[in-house]
Design a protein that fits this description.
Elements lengths: L2 H5 L44 H73 L8 H10 L11 H9 L8 H39 L2 H7 E2 L4 E2 L13 H43 L5
Antiparallel strand pairs: 1-2
Helix pairs in contact: 2-3, 2-4, 2-7, 5-7
Length: 287
């Protein structure tokens, strides 16, 4: 094989183009499209610069959201306070009704207790008492039995301790409530300081005159009652001075109880007026 045969390349594997078709030439830099597409930036695009109006709008929307939340919370608190106020008033009225009921029950026996003390004083001042000691034991023991009035202030005390008094929107109702419980405090003071002090002095003398065994026989703790002796049991002493001192303290006890009764009538009157006032102010259905 000669050199010309070695140099000659085979043509069977060369891609043959159809006639009249040419291979496109590659594009150059100068041949690139000259039109540049315009890019529009969205307002939320990271490179978007806000105008002052947009900042103002966002501030206004944030302020409005906070303000409306504040208003909603105030309305909710206001509704809650009014509901709590009404609950307090309903409970307070029930307490006052209990007080009035107690005063009515105690008033039924008040006149009898005053007559009893008058009878005790009369016997102690009599020239001779040995024939009437049965009644004397009975009156002397009954003199120390009296139903104290303390008033039901549970709701009022709770309102004071929790700040519930501030929930009362009516100034006149607040003043009436304070006035009502002021007079109840006066009744308590008369009972604790006045009456109880006088009863202690009375008891100191009574133990020197009366036999405790007789008191045990006529006094029923389970029934809270005192029975009149069937006969005339003897006294420990008939010393006129001791009998006179006991009569004196019985007199003080009677007068103090009359004063307490007057204050209790004041509680009764103020209580009824306060119930009507609360019923009108809060539209409560009070039985």
């Amino acid at each position: 094989m000669n050199k010309e045969e070695n140099i000659k390349q085979p043509t069977d594997n060369i891609l043959q183009l159809p006639e009249n078709e040419t291979v496109p030439e590659p594009l150059t830099i100068n041949d690139q499209p000259s039109t540049i597409m315009e890019v529009h930036k969205h307002p939320h695009h990271v490179t978007h610069k806000k105008k002052w109006g947009e900042y103002l709008l966002e501030f206004f929307m944030l302020f409005l959201a906070v303000f409306l939340g504040f208003v909603a919370e105030n309305i909710r608190e206001h509704i809650s306070e009014r509901e709590n106020e009404k609950v307090y008033m309903q409970s307070l009225v029930q307490n006052i009704k209990n007080d009035i009921s107690t005063i009515k029950d105690q008033q039924k026996v008040f006149d009898q207790r005053v007559i009893l003390l008058d009878s005790l004083i009369s016997i102690l001042d009599a020239p001779t008492i040995t024939s009437n000691t049965g009644n004397l034991y009975y009156y002397a023991r009954m003199a120390t039995k009296d139903n104290g009035f303390f008033g039901n202030s549970s709701t009022f005390d709770q309102m004071k301790s929790t700040g519930g008094l501030k929930l009362i929107k009516s100034k006149s109702v607040t003043e009436s409530i304070l006035s009502y419980y002021t007079i109840i405090d006066e009744v308590r003071q008369l009972q604790f300081v006045g009456e109880e002090g006088e009863l202690n002095e009375y008891r100191k003398i009574a133990v020197q005159i009366f036999n405790a065994d007789v008191f045990n026989q006529i006094n029923s703790i389970s029934m809270n009652m005192v029975a009149r002796p069937v006969d005339n049991p003897p006294l420990r002493t008939t010393d006129r001075k001791l009998l006179g001192d006991l009569a004196g303290w019985a007199h003080y006890i009677k007068n103090t109880r009359i004063g307490i009764d007057q204050f209790k009538k004041g509680v009764f009157e103020k209580g009824e007026k306060l119930i009507k006032q609360i019923e009108k102010e809060y539209h409560l259905e009070i039985e």
